[in-house]
C-alpha cells in the first residue's frame, strides 16, 4: 500500500457522505446570518440549501434551516460549531430525529404552445402545482413538496419549455406536539 | 420629569467605555490613538484608574494584551482606531482565538451616518474580525453600549476564553446615554457554556483509569486557562494515580518540569518518551487539549490501541480530529475535581511498574541530545544556560515562532503555569517581544525574557520603543543564526536544501539597534562568554537586546516527519543525511 505523502492527505476518512437538515434557532441580530454562512465557507462545509426568516418577532428569534452534506464526523462538527456561536440558541438535526417534515416551494416558468401546453398542464395537475400566472404562451406554476418531488417536476418541465425556476430552499419542522 | 443632568449614570459613550473598564477591574490597557477614538482618549486623559500603554503598532497592542492575559489569567484589553488600526489587530485576534486567550478589543469606527460610504479610515471591522473573534459587536446606539461592553467581558472570559471586539462609531462615543454597572442580564440568553461534567461519563473515565496498564495523561492549555485550581488538581491526580504525564506546547507549566512523572512535551518536536507513551498507551486522559495536527502526527496511526478520555469545555473539540471513547464536556478544573473524588473513593492506584520500566528505556534514548562545542554556541546550550541562570527566579518567558521556540519548550523547565507565553496555534512570528511588554506591565518586578529568533524579532522590533518609554526592563534573548531557522530546516529536509529566501543577507547590528532605542545591547559569540553575558543581561534593570550568535545550521530534533506516526520519530543521533532523506521522502505537502 502506498504511504500517503502527508498527514494532511490521510486525514480524510472515507466514511460515506450523508445529507442532513439542520434547524438553527438564532437571535435575530445584525450579522447573524453572515456568521453562520462564514462558518460554513471558512471551515469548508457544504450548503445544499439555506432558508432563513424571522419566526418570533417579539423575541427576536430567527430560524435558519440548512441542508448540508458530510461524513457523520463532519456533520457532528457542524452541529457543535453552530451550537457554540454566541447568538445561536439551539441546533436540531432534523434528519437524525427522523420525525420531521420537509417542504420547499418553487415557482416554475414554462413557455410553450399547442400540444406541449396541454401536456404541461396535465403534469402540473398530477403534481398539484398551481398556475399563478399565465399568458397565451407561458405559465408560472407554484409547487410545494419535498426536494425530490420538485426536482422531478422541474425535470419533466425541461423538454416542455422550462424557462426559469425560483426555489425557497427547504423548511423543516418536527412531527408531533413537541416544539424544538 | 426628573433632572437627568444630575444622574451619575448619564454620560457619553466614551466615558462609558472607561467606566466599564474600571468596573471590570481593568488597570492597564494597550493602544494607539487615531481619529475615530479621540473621544475615548480624551476620557483616558482625564482619569488615573486605567493606565494606558502606548504601543508603536496596533499588532503590538494586541500581543501585549495577550501576554498580559496569559501571565495573569485576567482579560487583556486593547484600544485601536478605525480602518488600519482595526486591520492591524487581525493577527493578534486570530492568535488569541487559536490559543483561547481572553482579549477585549475596543475599536473606533467612523460615525454611523458615514458607515458604508468608504469614509476616511473606514473598514468593515466587524465583518473582517468576525471569523477571528469569539464574538464581536457594532454598537449603533449609545444606550446599548454598557450592555455590550459587559457582555463582551463575559464572553471573553467565560467558557472557552477568546478574543472579542466592540466596534464603536465616533458619534456613539460623543452621544450621551445611560450607563449601568455589570449585571447578570447583560448576557445573551443563547450563551451558556457548560462547566460541570456529566457524572456518568466521569464514572466511566474513572473505571478506565483504574484499570489502566499503560496510562498516559496528556494535558493542554485548557488546564492553565481554567485557573490555579485546575493545576493543583492535575498535580494531585498525577500523584494519586502515579501516571506519567506529558503536555502540549500550550500546557507547559501545569505540571512541573522537575516532577518525577513528567515525560516532557509531546508532538512534532516532543520527546521520544512522550510520543512513544502516547502511541503505546492503553488509556489516554486528555485534559484541556484538542488533538491538534502538531500533536497527533499521522491521524490514522495515532495511539491505535488506547481508550481515550477527552475533557474539554468546547463540545466542538470533541471528535474533531480523533475519535474518543469517553468525552466529558465542561471546565477541566471542575471535572478533575470530580474524577479525583470518585477515584479516591472507589479505585486504588493501578500497578504500572512495567509501563514505567518501558518508559525508562525510551527515556534512555536521550532524544534531546545535542553535541556541545567549545567554538560555537549551540542554541540548545544557550537555552539551557539561560534556564540555569534564571532557575528559582521570578521569571516569565515569551517566545517568537520557529526553532528557538521549540528549543525553549524543550530545554527551559517550567515549574508553574502562566510563566510561558508562546504563539501555539497561529504560530505568529513577532508575538514574543510585544507579549513580553504586556507581561512586564502586569509584573513590573519580575524577570521577563523573550526567547527570540533574529527573523521573528524584527517583525515587531518597534515595541522596544514602548519598553523604553515605560521603563519595562524586558530581555530579548535572540538566538541569532541569521536564518529563518525552521524554514531553512524544512527546506533542507524536504526541498533538497534549496534555501530559498530563508537567509537574512542584511541583519541589523542588534547592539547598535538597542542603543538607538535607548536600550542596552549585548552580543556574545563564544560559549565561554555566554554565562557571564547572561548574568549581565539579568542584572541590567533596563530593556536589553541580547544578540546570541549561535551555530547557523543546527536543526531542531527530535522530529516526527510528515505523514508519520508517533513511533516513527527521527532522533538526533539518527539524523544523518541518508536517514533524513528517507524519513522525509515525499512529505513536501505537509505544512
What does this structure look like?
The complex is a heterodimer of chains A (180) and B (591). With 180 residues, chain A is α+β, with helices and mostly antiparallel strands. Chain A has six helices and nine strands, in the order H-E-H-E-E-H-E-H-E-H-E-E-H-E-E. Chain A folds into two domains: 13-97, ACT domain (Alpha-Beta Plaits); 101-174, ACT-like. Chain A, domain 2 (Alpha-Beta Plaits, 2-Layer Sandwich), CATH 3.30.70.1150. In chain A, 30% of the residues lie in helices and 39% in strands. In chain A, strand 2 and strand 3 form a beta hairpin. The N and C termini of chain A lie far apart (48 Å). Chain B is of the alpha/beta class. Chain B is 37% helix and 16% strand. In chain B, helix 3 packs parallel to helix 5 and helix 12 (272-280) packs antiparallel against helix 15 (353-363). The longest helix of chain B has 16 residues, at 142-157. Classes of the chains: A alpha+beta (180), B alpha/beta (591). The A-B interface holds A 3-11, 13, 26-27, 30-31, 34-35, 38, 42, 73, 76-77, 80-81, 83-89 and B 126-127, 130-131, 134-135, 138, 155, 160, 188-191, 293, 296-300, 314-316, 318-321, 323, 562-564, 586-591.
